[in-house]
């Protein structure tokens, strides 16, 4: 009987040593999952960067036309503006500096180049190191091409939080958004509608947002410039406009976050032949 009990104890002990390996692995995975979920819940939310500069209060009728997503079409835009004695500011991406000679020519002709991040990204919800690297790499690309270091930074869609703003300040630069949007990111708009939008919203000290990559914007540009000049406006760079007055700030109280895309709906066909929409999980 004693031998039997001893054998049973040994068997249970061996089983106890062998079984935990698989169980332990499962427990580790579960614990890791719990920890990562817990840390994700505890992760700090992006903080508002404070009011963002969107334009300037000036005593003279002057406007800054700005073009995001360069360096595409820089030469074409410079040609249109120069023909009517106007200036502009290009916010270019470091990774898109294939047209470096066009950017250098723009600077030589009195135009301004701004930093639009290296990979055309948002500066919202990222780490400080990531934001700082995006800004520094773009500064280096622009300076290598033009010999000039950008004064202004603007992130993709104007998205930035307090961390991104700190990276901008630490780079010794200033951040600028806009107060007149041409809405040329709406591909359904015609050049005539883009022109009407810009001219109709113009006011002294405005910073106008357009996109260098939009064909309709290039078509609308000569008319925009002609109409604004007919109304007595000077078309200058952002730095020139800043030198004429004081910055105006947005009234936003939250960090500008990227818009979340809604989940697509899938149709589920029932045996009866009827179909019903169901949101994918």
Can you characterise this structure?
- Strands 2, 3, 4, 7, 8 and 9 form a 6-stranded parallel β-sheet that branches. The protein has a two-stranded antiparallel sheet with strand order 1-10. Strands 5-6 form a two-stranded parallel sheet.
- Helix 2 (74-83) runs parallel beside helix 7 (215-230), helix 4 (128-146) packs across helix 5 and helix 6 (191-201) packs parallel to helix 7 (215-230).
- It has a single domain, classed as Alpha-Beta Barrel (TIM Barrel).
- It is α/β, with parallel strands linked by helices and 281 residues long.
- The chain is built from 8 helices and 12 strands.
- The multimeric state of the shown protein is single chain
> Which spans of ≥5 residues are poorly predicted at pLDDT below 50?
8-43, 262-281
CATH class wording: Alpha Beta
In percent terms, what proportion of residues is strand? 15-25%
User: How many helix segments?
Assistant: 8
Series of H and E elements: HEEHEHEHEHEEHEHEHEEE
Q: What does the main sheet amount to?
A: 6 strands, parallel
* Class per helix and strand makeup: alpha/beta
Helical fraction: 40-55%
CATH architecture assignment: Alpha-Beta Barrel
Give the termini separation.
60 Å
Q: Rough shape?
A: globular
Determine the CATH topology: TIM Barrel
Number of DSSP-assigned strands: 12
The CATH homologous superfamily is termed: Glycoside hydrolase/deacetylase
Radius of gyration, in Å, reads 28 Å
Domain module count:
1
Overall pLDDT, averaged?
82
